[in-house]
Write a structure and sequence with these properties.
The complex is a heterodimer of chains A (about 90) and B (about 325). Chain A is mostly helical and about 90 residues long. In chain A, about 50% of the residues lie in helices and about 5% in strands. In chain B, a hairpin with a 3-residue loop joins β7 and β8. The chains are: A mainly alpha (about 90), B alpha/beta (about 325).
Chain lengths: ~90, ~325
């Protein structure tokens, strides 16, 4: 599902993607770049604990509150999936 | 049919904010923020002035239904998360039994299913009593139960060591205790089904399968919840409330997404103020559900717990109020 299809603020979603890829590279201690199409668990090995840490860092950096209770972890296959969810389910902190 | 005759819970009024545990437990600022923001853990019960004996006694003396019926108690089962809770030869369980006039009862501890030991204790108490039941009372309908044998279940621990105070990035333990009288034939709250799944490969000592445990935690818990419902001949739609283990809020939010069950019907009230009170959670959450008027006679409810440590146990139990 693309940002255009969901009617999201594309510019804001891109900010989420940029923040996510930077934070993920640091959290996972990864020298290669993280890209939007990468699969969170299978490819990056993101655990649920690190996933929460990622969300917390996004909240701090982007000054938002994410509706975590609506997050269906099983539907978050890729970095892009999670960015779309965050962009669609957050409010200003 | 195994039945909960009465439940009593004691939670020390003294609370410790999660932030003040950071130093002693070596938690990072990020871990504390995670606990507070997503796990819904804000403070835990701690009272350095109360011993384990004190905690268990405070729960047990609150059990009005026990008074005058001590001679009916055949078994005392202490459901525990931690394998060791005191230096030899201290034995708080036996001390409590003697103080309560239960020296005649067979008293023992159940510990190898960690925080799921509480549900196992209920099942085991019912089985022991049923096995003892005389033919004359085995067909009882509640009236016969007035003088029938009972079992007392105790739960609750002191958070002595770091390992007994915090579990990985998952939960913070709080102190407290519960006492529950169980009968084999009582009219309420009747246990309709019990399911459990012991997964020895998830041993936190080796840590080899920690990532797999994280992935399989929720599906495995959902699986035993469905198995217990199947055994009871019910579906989630028949369940009024879920009594969770108080591991954290986000786990249960995600469980609800997985199960398609409304999160406002999971009794999460106590997590922010008590933390995970070892095996006593289910009893504390039962009391909260009753106090909030969430359970009416005839309502079915589901208790669920995961014990993680030396292996992992996923357990679920269905009751009728």
């Amino acid at each position: 599902m693309t940002a255009q299809e969901t009617g999201l603020d594309h510019e804001f979603r891109q900010r989420v993607v940029d923040a996510m890829t930077t934070v993920l590279a640091r959290l996972l201690d990864r020298s290669e770049p993280v890209t939007e199409d990468m699969r969170l668990m299978e490819e990056l090995g993101l655990s649920s604990t690190l996933g929460l840490e990622l969300l917390l860092e996004l909240e701090d950096q982007l000054e938002i509150l994410i509706d975590v209770e609506l997050l269906d972890a099983d539907q978050m296959k890729t970095v892009g999936d999670m960015a779309t969810f965050v962009a669609a389910h957050c409010q200003s902190a | 049919m195994t039945a909960l005759e009465a439940v009593s819970v004691y939670l020390p009024p003294a609370r410790t904010p999660i932030e003040s545990l950071a130093g002693p437990l070596g938690l990072t600022e990020m871990q504390v923020k995670l606990f507070r923001r997503f796990h819904g853990l804000r403070e835990v019960c701690r009272d350095p002035g109360l011993s384990l004996y004190d905690l268990l006694m405070k729960a047990a003396v609150g059990l009005d239904a026990l008074r005058g019926h001590e001679d009916r108690v055949r078994y005392v089962l202490y459901a525990r998360t931690m394998p060791v809770v005191g230096p030899y030869p201290a034995n708080p369980l036996h001390d409590v039994c003697h103080a309560l006039g239960l020296g005649h009862a067979l008293a023992f501890t159940i510990t190898h299913q960690s925080c799921a030991s509480g549900l196992l204790a209920i099942d085991m108490a019912g089985r022991l009593l049923a096995a003892d039941a005389l033919p004359a009372t085995a067909t009882g309908d509640g009236q016969d139960n007035q003088q029938g044998p009972l079992a007392l279940i105790l739960a609750g621990e002191k958070a002595f060591t770091r390992e007994a105070q915090v579990f990985a990035d998952t939960t913070v333990f709080g102190e407290g205790a519960a006492a529950c009288l169980v009968s084999a034939l009582g009219p309420r709250d009747r246990m309709l089904a019990y399911a459990s799944n012991v997964r020895g490969e998830f041993d936190s000592v080796t840590g080899e399968n920690d990532a797999r445990l994280q992935r399989e935690y929720r599906p495995s818990l959902a699986d035993v919840m469905r198995r217990a419902l199947d055994e009871a001949g019910l579906t989630l739609g028949d369940i009024r409330v879920v009594l969770p283990h108080n591991v954290n809020v986000v786990t249960w939010q995600r469980m609800c997404t997985l199960l398609k069950f409304p999160v406002d019907r999971v009794v999460l009230d106590n997590i922010p103020s008590t933390g995970h009170v070892f095996c006593a959670d289910v009893f504390a959450n039962y009391k909260t559900a009753c106090e909030r008027g969430l359970l009416q006679p005839g309502d079915r409810y589901l208790a669920a717990a995961v014990g993680a440590g030396g292996g992992a146990t996923f357990a679920a139990m269905v009751f009728e109020h």
